[in-house]
Amino acid sequence: MSDAMAQFRDAFFEEATELADGMEATLLSMDLAAVEVEDLHTLFRAAHSIKGNAATFGFPEVAAFTHKLESTLEPVRQGNRPMTSELREMLLQGVDLIRSHLHQARRGESLSPREQQAQAELITRLQADAGAPLPAPSTPAAPARDQAMKGGTGFSIRFEAPLDAFRRGVNLERLFRDLAKLGHLQTWTDLTRIPASNELDPEDCHLAWDVRLETSHPQADVDDIFEFVADGDNLRIQPLPPLGAVPNLGDILQVEAGVSPADIREALSQQKRLGELLVDMGKVKPEVVNKALDQQTKKRNQAEASTVRVATEKIDRLVNLVGELVITQAMLAQASQLSNTMQGEEQMSAALLQLDRQTRELQERVMGIRMVPVEMVFSRFPRMVHELGKQLGKDVELIMEGQATELDKTFIEMLVDPLTHLVRNAVDHGMETKEERQKSGKPSMGSIALRASSRGGHIHIEVKDDGKGLNRDRIYQKALDRGLLQPGSRPSDEELNLLIFEPGFSTVEQVSDLSGRGVGMDVVRQNVRSLGGRIEVESEPGRGTLIRLVLPLTMAILDGLTVRVGEEIYVFPLASVLESFQRQVADVQTVKGDREVISLRGEFIPVVRLLTLLGLGPNPDASERTLLVLVESEGRRAAMAVDELLGQQQVVIKSLETHYKRVEGVSGATILGDGRVALILDVPGLMRLEASTAAASV
Amino acid sequence: MGHSILTVDDSSTMRQMISFTLKGAGFDVIEAGDGVEALEVAKGKKLSLIITDVNMPRMDGITLVARLRALPEFKFTPILVLTTESDASMKQKGKEAGATGWIVKPFSPEKLLDVVNKVI
Q1: Rounded to whole angstroms, how far apart are CA atoms A337 and A339?
Q2: In the predicted model, what is the mean pLDDT of residues A134-145?
Q3: Which of A41, A361, A636, B72 sits a CA distance of 20 to 30 A from B58?
Q4: pLDDT band at residue B77, thresholds of 50, 70 and 90?
């Protein structure tokens, strides 16, 4: 396949995926009691487009399957077949299969045997459900039609004559003469199906042909010729590869050397895959090959996931900006030659001003490329909630808001699993059964709300259910059992709520196969933390639970508070800073020998000695520091002792891990304007570190 | 050498339309009003094609096809049945009885000639 064609293929996959997503959304939003005709047309058109495009870009299997969906939808949109909930389920499965098809086709493969079976079963069910037998398709393999209409190169045809062809007075010779009228014809007669003479009924027709027809006629014309002899599976018509495509070796040999397609098929069937050959040679064990194949699949998936679609206007704007930068550079060059003159200095400062503006805009816009709407994660949930509700026998309504909110692409990918888990949890555990809801006077239909919003430098993503709320007594008991709380301790509601994110923490007695194994919630927290975000939980017994993921806008840039501690400069993420104050005005008390706490509005907050904590300074190092920065993470607070507040600024995060190694309490490093390196502090990490050293010193 | 075609239909209008079209295209045409008459008329004739309606009194088209196929002289003769789109299963029944193909009613003279040219 040429590069140009491969590009179109990518576009095809994206478009087809979008169309499939659209079909799913339409199906899910459909009110079965009052189906909008326009929705049915939309579904039909989507199936039709996927089919036509698949054929054009050389994916006959995708086309053939989508054709089935299209023909199912045809009578529905004509009002001749009702849209039932069964049909909807089947069509949803069909959408899944289209996705599987696309997924496999993208990697140059066909459906797995399991998927193929699912497909066959679905097709049977679609037809059985239609009640009356579907009108026999007048075109046994219509998918290529669109391609041919657009002027494809022709068809490769396999035709096995029906056994009763002679007895029905079929004129086979006539058939080939008609085919030859359409274009350039090459035929190979396959005599291998003729049985031995003692078993042969001379009135039976055992002939078969492989035909290569170069023509600009549409497939309908070819179908028409075979009208009386096509019997379902005895005729296969496939479009020839499009012009410009690199043909298979077999195709070339067929045309140039007249090798019959039957022989090529036979030869191919004898070919073995590398893994099988190596196993046969005794070089590796089959398990090893399977493992390697898994690994390959993973790598392949990763490679697929690493592209991002960018609106052309965004790119155009960048190109313009770079153009402006070049002009600014020329201005600077000129100004430097005129240095020491009045005019030169003026020009220099004008150019620098311009450079400043352009650099800032460039930065913003390059960051903008990575921003994609949360819709990309949200779009999977209507389906998931629908399926879950069905499985659990709960009526659940999903409300989504703020799908257009943009998030860093990396975030989107890393949010998929946590959000999936939270939504699943909300439906499975948060939501009561219909009976329970009725008993407590709630509407039997439960609701889950997914909201995304942008709040001053942060993105909030909320999963809210109107279920029974968290059971704090049970969480408390469980935390005691697991040693997460000391007996007699009195944690705040918020601290208690957050315990559900501890590893292995699940309060559900009966483990369902959907959720409730205690794995998951801690992973949610891990992922959110690794994105530099935090989790908040609000829950009211009987009213429901709200879980809020608070995420930074992007991972690459951070709003920070730069501080000096001794000789070192550190950056606190502004998001975790609550306030800062003079040490003198705070009520500092010493406890347990050398540890300090401050009493702030009735709450005791530990004072953290940064250098000691990071293993950099003498002990004690805090008492002489004059300022305290109050930080918060996951409901816990601490006062960090510092010498000087240098200011707020945006810093570019550089990973410490890739350049050095992971350091507890530090999330990265940045380069300051004067060239110095400053460490960016990981507040939750510092809190953990502080908690563990405090526990160790007890 | 001209081809002879037998058209079987209980509707004389239909027979005339078919007959007129085929004669215009240079074929010889014989007519019959139902299956029983068709078997009598066909006897001893050398026919290139038989076109029969399905729903007819005395003997329907499907039976006629089966009976014709049982006769040595019509064993391999092309036979077309006239079906309607509303009865798609008739195509299959016709095939099983031994029909070569079908023409879906309503059809135009051009369509008729197209299909005839396909099987002769």
Answers
A1: 5
A2: 38
A3: B72
A4: very high
Task: State how far the Cα of A449 lies from the Cα of A431, in Å rounded to an integer.
Answer: 12
Judged by CB atoms closer than 8 Å, whether chains meet at B75 and A174 is answered as no
Please give the residue that has the higher pLDDT: either A619 or A113.
A113
For the structural domain made of A557-697, what CATH number should be given? Answer: 2.40.50.180
Which CATH code is given to the segment(s) A3-135? Answer: 1.20.120.160
Per-residue pLDDT at A617:
65
Residue B99 with chain A: CB contacts under 8 Å: 168
pLDDT in the model for residue A510? 40
Confidence label for A244 from pLDDT (cuts 50, 70 and 90): low
Chain B residue nearest residue A138, CA to CA? B88
Whether the pLDDT of residue A530 is over 80: the answer is: no
DSSP state of A169: T
Q: What is the CA radius of gyration of chain B?
A: 13
Interchain CB contact of A136 with B (< 8 Å) = yes
Distance in angstroms (rounded) separating the CA atoms of residues A568 and A640? 14
The domains located in chain B, with CATH, are: 4-119 (3.40.50.2300)
The answer, yes or no, to whether residue A105 has pLDDT greater than 50, is yes
Q: What is the pLDDT of residue A184?
A: 86
Residue B69 has its nearest CB partner, among A136, A167, A170, at: A167
Query: Torsion angle of alpha carbons A308, A314, A320, A326, nearest 10°?
Result: -40
Sequence ranges of the domains in chain A? 3-135, 144-246, 312-369, 373-552, 557-697
H or E element that contains B4 = strand B4-8
Judge: domain A144-246, CATH 3.30.70: yes
Q: For residue A368, which of A574, A560, A559, A553 has the smallest C-alpha distance? A: A553
Question: Using an 8 Å Cβ cutoff, are A633 and A645 in contact?
Answer: no
- Cβ neighbours for A355, distance < 8 A, ≥ 6 positions apart: A325, A328, A332
Structural element, H or E, at residue A268: helix A261-270
Mean pLDDT of chain B: 87
Q: pLDDT class for A146, splitting at 50, 70, 90? A: very low
Average pLDDT over residues B21-45: 90
Q: What is the pLDDT of residues A187-241, one digit of tens each?
A: 888 888 888 877 888 888 888 898 888 888 888 888 888 988 888 788 888 888 7
Q: Decide if A136 and B91 are in contact by the 8 Å CB cutoff.
A: yes
CATH superfamily of A373-552: Histidine kinase-like ATPase, C-terminal domain (3.30.565.10)
- From the number of C-beta atoms within 10 Å of its C-beta (0-12, 13-18, 19+), residue A268 rates as exposed
Whether complex ipTM tops 0.85:
no
Fold match flag (A3-135 vs A373-552): no
Are the CB atoms for A410 and A376 separated by under 8 Å? no
Structure tokens at A67: 């054709």
* Helices and strands of chain A, counted as H and E runs: 24, 22
Which pLDDT score is estimated for A563? 92
Q: Where is pLDDT greater, at A488 or B102?
A: B102
Distances (CA, A) of A52 to A59, A67, A71, A72, A73: 10, 9, 13, 16, 15
Residue A403 is classified by DSSP as: T
Give the per-residue pLDDT at A247.
67
Chosen for mutation from B71, B104, B118 (greatest number of chain A CBs closer than 10 Å) is B118
Inter-chain contact A170–B78, Cβ cutoff 8 Å?
yes
Which residue, A354, A281, A291, is CA-closest to A323? A354
